[in-house]
């Protein structure tokens, strides 16, 4: 049964990272930000792992394939049976950070692609060219011409990226601090358990 469940997970395009023991939640979607572009198109976001649920005996975090919009790998975080309040705080903050990160990069990538298409269209129009040539192939611009777009895009989004970086470092510091607290809590519990066992 365990082998069959693991094989099903592999077929779903997921890989596992071992961390601790307990149960897992269902993999309900490929990424929170996946619906942004799909919403603009008036359709539901596609998901390769929309109905995936880790095996009940799993004691791992499950990592999915890259999201179609954010290009980030979504994670289903393992929930231990005897999760402490501190452990729960860490897990929920990591989940919330993942949502925030997925949404930022999904939105940013949509803006980048849209801006790129508009830039190419305007440059080709100025040259009197169409988006596709006689054979139906897309007409592209030179690397030098595209460099103007990249420079302009980075300049326009400089403040946004700075704010993102500051928030990212703050969140990572908080996660690292909480992980240290959880590790200390587990070590303290283990020492207490061993001490009780020796006394008995």
Secondary structure layout:
Layout: H1 2-11, E1 15-18, E2 23-24, H2 35-41, E3 60-63, E4 75-76, E5 78-79, H3 85-126, H4 143-156, H5 158-199
Antiparallel strand pairs: 1-3, 2-5, 3-4
What can you tell me about this protein's structure?
The chain has 200 residues and is mostly helical. It folds into two domains: 1-83, no CATH class; 84-200. It has helices at residues 2-11, 35-41, 85-126, 143-156, 158-199, and strands spanning 15-18, 23-24, 60-63, 75-76, 78-79. The strands form two sheets. The protein has a three-stranded antiparallel beta sheet, with no helix packed on it. Strands 2-5 form a two-stranded antiparallel ribbon. The two termini are 39 Å apart. Belongs to the COA8 family. It is found in: Mitochondrion inner membrane. It is a peripheral membrane protein. This is Cytochrome c oxidase assembly factor 8.
Characteristics:
Cytochrome c oxidase assembly factor 8; COA8; elongated; mainly alpha; disordered N terminus; mitochondrion; 200 residues
């Amino acid at each position: 049964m365990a082998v069959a469940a693991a094989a099903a997970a592999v077929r779903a395009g997921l890989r596992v990272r071992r961390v601790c023991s307990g149960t897992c939640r269902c993999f309900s979607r490929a990424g929170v930000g996946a619906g942004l572009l799909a919403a603009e198109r008036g359709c539901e976001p596609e998901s390769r792992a929309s109905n995936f649920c880790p095996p009940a005996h799993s004691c791992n975090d499950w990592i999915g394939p890259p999201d179609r919009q954010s290009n980030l790998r979504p994670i289903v975080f393992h929930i231990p049976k005897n999760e402490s309040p501190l452990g729960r705080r860490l897990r929920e903050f990591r989940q919330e950070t993942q949502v925030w990160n997925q949404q930022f990069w999904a939105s940013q990538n949509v803006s980048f692609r849209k801006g790129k298409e508009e830039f190419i269209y305007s440059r080709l129009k100025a040259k009197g060219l169409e988006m596709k040539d006689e054979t139906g192939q897309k007409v592209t611009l030179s690397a030098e011409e595209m460099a103007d777009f990249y420079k302009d895009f980075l300049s326009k989004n400089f403040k946004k990226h700075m704010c993102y970086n500051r928030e990212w470092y703050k969140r990572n510091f908080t996660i690292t601090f909480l992980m240290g607290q959880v590790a200390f809590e587990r070590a303290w519990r283990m020492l207490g358990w061993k001490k009780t066992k020796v006394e008995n």
